[in-house]
Specification:
The complex is a heterotrimer.
Chain A: E1 2-9, H1 18-28, E2 36-42, E3 49-55, H2 59-72, E4 77-81, E5 84-90, H3 94-104, E6 109-114, E7 117-123, H4 126-132, E8 142-148, E9 163-166, E10 169-177, H5 180-189, H6 199-212, H7 217-227, E11 230-237, E12 241-246, E13 255-258, E14 262-266, E15 282-284, E16 292-295
Antiparallel strand pairs in A: 1-8, 1-14, 2-7, 2-8, 3-5, 3-6, 4-5, 9-10, 10-11, 11-12, 12-16, 13-14, 13-15
Chain B: E1 3-5, H1 11-20, E2 29-33, E3 50-54, E4 69-73, E5 88-91, E6 107-110, E7 123-129, E8 143-148, E9 164-167, E10 178-181, H2 185-197, E11 210-214
Parallel strand pairs in B: 1-2, 2-3, 3-4, 4-5, 5-6, 6-7, 7-8, 8-9
Antiparallel strand pairs in B: 9-11, 10-11
Chain C: H1 17-29, E1 34-37, E2 49-51, E3 72-74, E4 83-85, E5 89-91, H2 101-113, E6 117-119, H3 127-132, E7 135-140, H4 149-154, E8 157-161, H5 181-187, H6 207-220, E9 227-232, H7 236-246, E10 250-254, E11 260-264, H8 265-270, H9 275-288, E12 296-300, H10 306-314, E13 319-322, H11 324-329, H12 338-343, H13 368-371, H14 376-400, E14 414-416, H15 419-425
Parallel strand pairs in C: 5-13, 6-7, 7-8, 8-9, 9-10, 10-12, 12-13
Antiparallel strand pairs in C: 1-11, 2-14, 3-4
Helix pairs in contact in C: 2-14, 6-7, 7-9, 9-15, 10-14
Classes of the chains: A alpha+beta, B alpha/beta, C alpha/beta.
């Protein structure tokens, strides 16, 4: 069980403040999810380059990985964030870098990859996690965040959201799926791999699979209503977009707010209370079994 | 007239002070600033107070309210006035899920929209919504009146017992055992009474409402209705 | 003439007498079988565990002179007024409606005499029960029948019911025969109808929103009283962890042998875990969170004797709760009423059609003539006697294991008679060092 926050900026003047706004929203959802926290930020991307967010076993461990990577692949840009690092590699080198990482740095995990997306997640109180990764300094066009109270899987970073199973794609989830084990087995037969026992990872994998098979994100979310069972509120990020979906029974909470400057999502109104202009925002609750999507 | 800023005064202190007031108290009028979506504000009130809350509230505002009048100048989160026993709760904005849930008495008025499950399991409370209500409203509603000026979502009154539902707009779909019923003069008079108590002095015409209630086919198990359970 | 012998008639183990009779009943009625009680089939239970009494390395305590204390504090985590019980046995939640007023009064009298608590059920609090119970736990159920802030404030604790062992995931059930005028009024239902009940709470779903609900209840009660969370045994490790994270002061864990007033037979027998399999994971969760003994654990479902009490405590519980046994103590299923049980088509010890409200003992009924057969004073004395015996038996075993307080019983005082019990209770198979799943010796 959890808290979710999301922010999609329509006004580019707010882009430098994206991280700060997201950090504040995340902190208000601590009660709902004190075990671990994570967020995805969609910042700048360079043409021809792909960003990999790497997570190491420790601060020293990730520094070591990054320095070895830079030696092997000169010209790689890297930024360090506590136990994580964001490295930018030419897209044509991506396969080689992935293979090298898998061979040489088995204790380093690739938690996200994409043109613009960076993902950070760790065990700990949301405020502390945000501070470790300097969320408040980040800027970009949209961000999703999650605070976690572990239900049926362990409290480890592996259990933290967002989950990414495709380039620039990530998913956060509040609720509890009830048929994820069967869905996971079916997806494994389709060639997907999973790192955890977590139900959210299955949902992320399901959407990636549907999009791999040719569906748009919106259509993938539509068919997920048939294939995924249980209680859920999903917030999904793509390179230029931001989507929200609640299951048909819609017991888990969800509030949205929209102004000329942004579209925001929170599990509780409290997460939105400090946003600029919230007093005059259009505030509503998404309808059950209805896909909401915004794109630049 | 106490004026409390919830950014300064802890919620527990505010609620504690409100609970200590005896029914005969002179300190009736309270103003609460800066609610900022906090939960359980003015829950468990027990005296004929008049509480103004200036801003949006979180879950369970005025929960289990007894005797008090609570005016929320803003929107309300999940379960506003849940299990209310008596008194009056007025939300000037929208209300989230489960507004008035399991309420036994009193009146809840929502000027905006109420979300899903409005009046779920209601046991005698009267709820008046100027906007629309979401799906599963009046689910298992046992007693009381739910009045909706706007529309109702899917599965209105699913598994309803004896509560009365009055909807002026459209109903997306009716739930199990909930059917449209006639609006006699008696019903119009009863609706008029609820509207008056909610503060509408003749500006709303009861004849514009449709009545919905229980078909009572699920009251004793019958195998031919097994699909409805 | 054909003198070939015939084979001995043989019934199927799969399609046994019970299954065949149930198929016939289903075909005749078109409705599932409803009954009361808990799981009746044999499952691994406390009988499969034994205590290791004092010997060369452990010394026993003398009875009478050397104290073996039995008291327990519940709700020390957040409440200003935690509960102090004299004995580690409470009376489980059972509604007025499923039980007669006389039965509720008997339970209240007996529990109060022994310095322990009773619990309301899915119908709300009656004046009689509040009057006769010195310590009363008030349940908050999905139905919210009769819920009100005055009763909330005059309760000694609140028990939020997520589910019960007989039907984890099911709601309350009370059929028309028992919805008398009084019951109907308390529940705001028309008289004589079959009550349909919700299985989820109306204003929250999930531990993250439960946390907010608990906050509301604490605010209404000014943080005075403990809040319990009751779950049916299902995923005890995670359920316990989540209950702690939601803010519970006490966790009540009910195994599948725990009784209900009425639900579908298939629910009782095929959903849930045996009590024995649920305790260690729950205790493990508490220990992993550093909350063992800080958030107390009450275990129920099949507690019969002081041996069961002692075993539950040894496995890590702080207290136990009795329901079925309490009703048996005040006269349920007594062979003295065999003639009447026969007339109902059953026999003493098997009677479980409590939803029909014809209980000859006056316990599971709303019919005044039947209920009047139960004398609450006598019932109270019988319950007190039974609780007394439970306590003395627990002390006997604890002393034999060298304990001056029953809480000092520990898993190492136990061994198991079967591999299943050893694995579930995580204690060695008797005479060996082997705990299946934990070590390989």
């Amino acid at each position: 069980m959890c808290g979710i926050v999301g922010l999609f900026l329509k006004d580019s003047a707010l882009e430098p403040d994206l991280g700060q706004m997201t950090a504040r929203m995340l902190a208000t959802m601590t009660d709902r999810g004190p075990d671990s926290a994570g967020f995805a930020v969609y910042g700048t991307g360079q043409a021809g380059q792909t960003k990999l967010t790497l997570r190491g076993p420790s601060v020293a461990g990730i520094e070591n990985t990054v320095s070895k990577l830079k030696q092997t692949f000169p010209g790689t840009d890297a930024a360090l964030y506590d136990t994580h690092a964001v490295v930018a590699v030419p897209t044509e080198d991506l396969a080689r870098v992935d293979a090298w990482l898998g061979r040489e740095c088995p204790d380093t995990e690739v938690v996200g990859r994409g043109h613009r997306m960076e993902i950070f997640k760790e065990v700990g109180l949301p405020q502390d996690v945000a501070a470790r990764f300097r969320l408040a300094t980040m800027h970009g066009t949209h961000a999703i965040g999650h605070t976690r109270m572990a239900t049926e899987s362990a409290v480890t970073t592996d259990g933290a959201h967002p989950y990414s199973t495709g380039g620039d794609q990530c998913l956060v989830h509040n609720g509890s799926l009830s048929n994820h084990n069967n869905v996971r087995r079916a997806l494994c037969r389709e060639g997907l791999t999973f790192e955890t026992e977590n139900d959210t990872e299955v949902a992320a994998g399901y959407l990636t699979w549907r999009m791999r098979e040719g569906l748009s994100l919106g259509d993938a979310l539509e068919v997920s209503l048939e294939d995924l069972d249980g209680f859920y509120t999903f917030v999904v990020g793509t390179e230029n977009g931001f989507g929200v979906l609640r299951d048909g029974i819609a017991c888990k909470p969800a509030i949205m707010a929209e102004t000329n400057q942004y579209v925001a999502f929170g599990s509780e109104y409290r997460a939105l209370a400090d946003l600029p202009g919230i007093g005059l925002a259009k505030v509503w609750e998404p309808e059950p079994a209805t896909v909401y999507f915004w794109e630049r | 007239m106490p004026d409390i800023d919830l950014g300064v005064t802890p919620l527990r202190e505010l609620n504690g002070a409100l609970h200590k007031l005896p029914p005969e108290t002179n300190e009736r009028h309270w103003v609460i600033e800066n609610p900022a979506g906090r939960h359980a504000i003015a829950a468990g009130l027990n005296a004929p107070l008049n509480v103004e809350i200036n801003g949006p509230v979180g879950y369970y505002c005025a929960g289990m309210n007894k005797l008090a009048t609570v005016n929320i100048h803003g929107s309300a989160g999940v379960g506003v006035a849940e299990n209310m026993m008596s008194g009056f709760v007025h939300v000037s904005g929208d209300a989230s899920q489960a507004a008035g849930a399991t309420g036994h008495g009193g009146l809840l008025r929502i000027d905006g929209n109420a979300s899903s499950r409005c009046g779920i399991s209601m046991k005698g409370i009267d709820i008046v919504v100027q906007g629309s209500v979401g799906h599963m409203s009046a689910f298992m509603a046992q007693a009381g009146n739910l009045v909706v000026f706007g529309d109702a979502g899917d599965a209105l009154g699913d598994s309803i017992y004896e509560a009365h539902l009055f909807v002026r707009g459209s109903v997306k779909s009716l739930g199990a055992d909930c059917i449209k019923k006639d609006m006699s003069d008696e019903h119009k008079a009863a609706l008029h009474d609820v509207l008056t108590r909610a503060g509408f002095n003749g500006e709303v015409d009861p004849s514009e409402f449709q009545r919905y209630g229980s078909a009572r086919t699920l009251y004793n198990f019958n195998v031919d209705h097994a699909g409805e359970y | 003439m054909d003198t070939t012998p015939i084979t001995t008639p043989r019934k199927s183990a799969t399609f046994d007498d019970y299954s065949m009779s149930e198929i016939r009943r289903a075909a005749a009625s078109g409705i599932y079988d409803i009954r009361g009680g808990g799981a009746k089939r044999k499952v691994p239970h406390f009988d499969d565990l034994l205590f290791l009494g004092a010997s060369m390395s452990r010394y026993p305590l003398e009875g009478y002179r050397e104290k073996c204390a039995t008291d327990v504090w519940l709700g020390t985590r957040f409440a200003e007024k935690p509960i102090h019980l004299k004995i580690p046995v409470t009376i489980a939640g059972m509604s007025f409606g499923s039980l007669s007023a006389q039965a509720k009064e008997s339970l209240g009298r007996g529990a109060s005499k022994m310095g322990t608590s009773t619990t309301t059920g899915d119908g709300g609090m009656t004046e009689e029960e509040r009057g006769h119970s010195s310590i009363l736990v008030y349940q908050l159920l999905p139905s919210r029948y009769g819920m009100n802030p005055d009763d909330l404030r005059r309760a000694d604790a609140i028990e939020i019911v997520i589910g019960q062992g007989a039907k984890p995931g099911g709601g309350g059930m009370l059929l028309g025969q028992k919805i008398s005028k009084r019951v109907a009024e308390m529940r705001t239902l028309p008289e004589g109808i079959d009550q349909r009940s919700a299985c989820r709470h109306p204003d929250w779903t999930g531990p993250d929103d439960l946390e907010i609900k608990i906050q509301e209840l604490r605010e209404i009660m000014d943080w005075q009283k403990p809040i319990y969370i009751k779950v049916g045994a299902s995923r005890p490790y995670y359920d316990t962890a989540l209950a702690v994270k939601s803010g519970a002061d006490v966790i009540v864990l009910d195994g599948m042998q725990g009784g209900t007033a009425a639900t579908q037979e298939v629910f009782i027998e095929h959903v849930g875990l045996p009590t024995l399999g649920a305790i260690r994971p729950a205790v493990q969760a508490l220990q992993d969170l550093g909350m063992h003994r800080k958030v107390q654990l009450i275990v129920s479902g099949g507690i019969r004797s002081g041996a069961d009490v002692a075993k539950a405590l040894a496995l890590g519980a702080d207290a136990v709760s009795v329901g079925t046994a309490a009703l048996a103590a005040i006269g349920d299923n007594d062979p003295a009423l065999e003639e009447e049980y026969q007339r109902l088509g059953t026999t003493a010890g098997a009677y479980d059609d409590w939803h029909e409200g014809q209980c000859p003992a006056g316990i599971n009924t709303q019919i005044p003539e039947l209920a009047a057969r139960l004398d609450p004073e006598l019932g109270g004395r019988r319950l007190a006697n039974y609780l007394s015996v439970l306590t003395l038996e627990t002390q006997t075993i604890a002393r034999a294991c060298g304990k001056s307080h029953v809480h000092n019983l520990e898993p190492e005082d136990l061994v198991a008679l079967t591999v299943e019990a050893a694995a579930m209770a995580q204690v060695p198979l008797a005479g060996t060092k082997w705990i299946p799943g934990l070590n390989t010796e």
